[in-house]
Every structure is written in C-alpha cells, then in structure tokens.
UniProtKB/TrEMBL annotation:
Basic residues composition bias: residue spans: 146-155
Domain Mutator-like transposase: 163-448
Myb/SANT-like DNA-binding domain sequence ranges: 11-49
InterPro entries found in the cross-reference section: Mutator_transp_dom (IPR049012), Myb_DNA-bind_5 (IPR028002)
Organism expressing this protein natively: Mytilus galloprovincialis
Pfam families for this protein: Mutator (PF20700), Myb_DNA-bind_5 (PF13873)
Polar residues bias locations: 73-84
The protein's name: Uncharacterized protein
Positions of the UniProt region annotated as Disordered: 69-99, 136-164
Length: 463
C-alpha cells in the first residue's frame, strides 16, 4: 500500500502588495542614507532623524498604522518577493573594490630600507590614495641561485686564458722534463701538451702544476714553479714570493682587499684574505725583530764614529724627536670632542751624521686589542712616548746631549726627568725645530689684531 505524501503547509505572506510598494518607494528614496556608513557626511544623528537605526524601526516609520506587521512576527520577506534593487542599473562601488591590500615578503635589508624613512613628506602622497603594502616577516637572505657545475673540459678552457706567477728557471726545467718523458713513453703521439688545470694546487701567489696530453693518457708529476724559503723547521716551506709580498705590504698603505682586487684585475687567482693574514702573523714579527737589530747596529756604529772623532763621551749625542699620527691632532678641533688620531709613531733620529738615521721608534695603536694603550694614557702624550724611546736608547749607551723637538712638545721634559731620576748621566739641552717655530710665529702674526693698527693697509681692491 502506497502512502500519500503530505503536502507542505502554505505560509501566509508577511506583507501585502500595497505594503511592498510602500517599502520599496521609501527605501529607494533614502537609499544613500541607509547604506552609507557613519562618517563626517552621514552621522548617527541623521540616521536617527530618518528612523533607520534598525530595519524594524524603518518599517514602522514607512508603513502606515494599519499596514505594520503584527507583533511577534520576526520572519523575513516571503519567497518570491522581488528585491527593491533588482531594477537598479548601477551599483555604487565600495572602497574595497578599488583598493586592494598588497602583501610582500622581502629580505631583511630591503625591509629595513622600506620601513626606516629618513623624513616624511605629506605632499608626496599618491593621487589615488593607494594603500601601502603590508610587509610580512622578512626572510633571512635573498634566494640562492643554484650554480651550474662546470665540466672538466669547460673548466680547462676557462683557465687556459688566465695568468699565473711562475719562476722562469723552474718553468723551463718542468717543460724540458715533460717533453723528454712524453717522447720516451709515447713516441708515436703528436698530441698537444698543456697544464692540467683540474689538478692545480695553489698556495697564495704560487702553484704546483702538472702536464697532460690532449690525445694520449700521459700525465706528468707535479712541479713546484716557485722558490722556497730554506729553514730548518719540518713541514712545507713557505714560498719566497708570499713572504716578499707581506714585507712589501708592511711598507705600503694597501690592505688585503685592495691587493686582491689588483690581482683579480690582472686575471690571476688571488690569495685568500685568511691566507694572507696567516702569513702576515709569521712575517711581521720577523720584520719587527730585523728593524730592532738594525737600530741596535746603528747605535753601536754611532758610538764608534764618536770614538773615532775623539769624543770624551761618545754616548752623548744630538737627537731629533717627533711624533707622526695617522690623523692630525688639530684636525678634530670644532668637529668632535674625541681625538681623531688612533695611531702614532714616535721616532728618534741622530743628528751627528749626514745620514740622520732613525735609532729609536715607539709605536702605539688605540685600535689594537693585543697591545692597547693603557687606561689614562693619551694618544697625543708625547712625554710618555719620548720617555719610553729615550729609556730604550739609554739601555744601549745612547744619551741625549742636545734634543731638538717641536715648540709645543713635552718630549724635552721627559729627557730632563730621566736626568733628574739619575737614569741618564748627561744633562740635556733643549733646541726648537726651526720649521715648526716659523709656522707658529706666522700664525701668531696672522692672529694679532694690533698689527693692523700699527701698519694699516688695504685689504680690498679700491673701486
């Protein structure tokens, strides 16, 4: 037996046709106020005046008394009701339709450049009021581009056009040995012999090379194309050119970065910065010891010269002393409360011979973490540097009889204090450097305003 399906109960309409027409007319009339959000043009007071703070109040205002909905009927419009905006041809666009938020994820450097604005100019805003991009959490670094691995043949061709530093004699020995060995092992081969760049070994500016044939499977042994420093220590010997490069760098204002740029610009493989620093840590102490031994030899020679001259006290000599800074001390006047100089070299030269050789040096560096300047010491304290240099000279029997310094230097007081402390037995006599003395005298003349009244003169061209 087939059961009959229960028909759905028909609902009564909430509004009649007359009520719908009235609602549609009033809503179309006040549509701008209804849809507009609270702003400076549409306030809450204006909406309250029209009675449209809620849809229920809107219907109570629009509908006549007899056409209002019954109390307790909270249902919406019935199915099939024509919406009031179906006949509208244009719809007012909202701000979200034209301005879309842009999200970007940048690197840390790029994020810092975008967020940190040196100054903000309100006149440079965009005409369309485009919203700024929303920056997401930055990534650590830029995306890495995968490097394509070169084949042995491509690497061989690219290295063939580069340059190398070789010893001429050792290079001739290598190729003579390679030609003979290749002819002996492969007498019928007429291939081209060249360096095997895949098996090259680099040590700073030098390298070890082996030869190979492009037709047969011949490979020679490795040859050192550089001379080594002969020492009694075990292990690999250092190349002479690497040691000589560090000695030259110590006498030039050129760093490792500048040296690498020059070498790479010559299409040569440059030594690594860590390798240069490692070699410098071994070479520079030797340079210091050589300079100290050289100055000691010059001091003994100076005493010998005065002895041959018949001096009663050959150790009492005439000295000249002055300090040199990486930045002039007076260059920071009016610019910085700190001293601009960070390095000083205080030199003491003899004035007994025509060579004027330097026999004492004191170096100080504020940037050095291994040998820093002691607390309380000043980089421009020439009294302390001169006292240290004179004490070193006194240990080899050299004392200051005549000391020439700047007019504004306190080095003479250091020599006088050493005499009063009985460290030296010769009482020093102070002399002023004529060059600095003339410069100071010229400055005093320029700054003296009374001279203009004594000797008036024209300072401008007459019309």
């Amino acid at each position: 037996m087939q059961t009959q399906r229960k028909l759905p109960r028909l609902r009564k309409t909430n509004f009649s046709q007359l009520e719908e027409n009235i609602l549609q007319t009033e809503v179309e009339k006040n549509y701008a106020v209804i849809k507009e959000k609270h702003s400076t043009s549409t306030t809450n007071l204006e909406k309250t005046e029209y009675g449209i703070t809620s849809p229920t109040k809107l219907m109570l205002l629009v509908l006549p008394t007899g056409l209002r909905r019954r109390k307790g009927n909270n249902s919406g419009f019935p199915t099939g009701t024509v919406p009031y905006n179906r006949q509208r041809k244009t719809v007012k666009p909202s701000k979200s339709d034209t301005t879309q938020t842009v999200y970007k994820r940048l690197t840390r450097k790029m994020t810092s450049l975008v967020q940190n604005i040196p100054y903000k100019d309100t006149d440079t805003q965009c005409v369309n009021d485009t919203k700024p991009a929303v920056l997401l959490r930055p990534r650590d670094t830029a995306p890495k581009i995968p490097k394509t691995k070169k084949s042995a043949k491509k690497n061989q061709r690219s290295e063939d056009s580069s340059n190398r530093t070789v010893n001429v004699r050792l290079n001739a020995i290598m190729w003579n040995s390679v030609f003979r060995e290749h002819q002996r092992l492969h007498p019928n081969c007429n291939g081209f012999l060249q360096w095997n760049m895949e098996r090259e070994e680099k040590f700073g500016f030098v390298n070890r090379e082996e030869a190979m044939c492009d037709k047969c499977n011949y490979q020679s042994r490795k040859f050192k194309l550089y001379e080594e420093v002969q020492t009694k220590k075990p292990g690999r010997k250092a190349a002479k050119i690497n040691v000589s490069a560090q000695a030259a760098l110590s006498q030039t204002p050129l760093g490792y970065t500048g040296l690498r740029k020059i070498v790479l610009g010559c299409n040569m493989p440059a030594p690594s910065a860590s390798g240069l620093q490692k070699r410098a840590n071994k070479v520079l102490p030797e340079i210091i010891n050589i300079n100290k031994e050289d100055m000691k030899a010059r001091r003994k020679q100076l005493i010998e010269i005065n002895t041959l001259r018949g001096r009663k006290d050959p150790g009492s000599v005439s000295l000249q002393a002055d300090g040199a800074y990486n930045n002039a001390i007076y260059s920071g006047i009016g610019k910085t409360p700190f001293q601009p100089a960070t390095q000083v070299v205080y030199s003491v030269a003899e004035a007994e011979t025509e060579d004027k050789s330097i026999i004492g040096v004191v170096c100080k560096n504020k940037l050095c973490s291994i040998h820093p300047i002691k607390s309380g010491e000043n980089i421009g304290d020439e009294y302390t540097w001169a006292k240290e240099a004179l004490q070193d000279l006194a240990s080899d029997g050299i004392e200051a009889k005549h000391l020439t310094t700047d007019p504004d230097s306190s080095a003479y007081r250091a020599a006088d204090d050493l005499y009063l402390e009985n460290t030296t037995s010769t009482e020093p006599e102070h002399f002023l450097d004529t060059r600095h003395f003339l410069n100071n005298h010229r400055k005093n003349i320029k700054n003296n305003k009374e001279l203009g009244e004594i000797m008036p003169g024209r300072t401008k061209k007459r019309p």
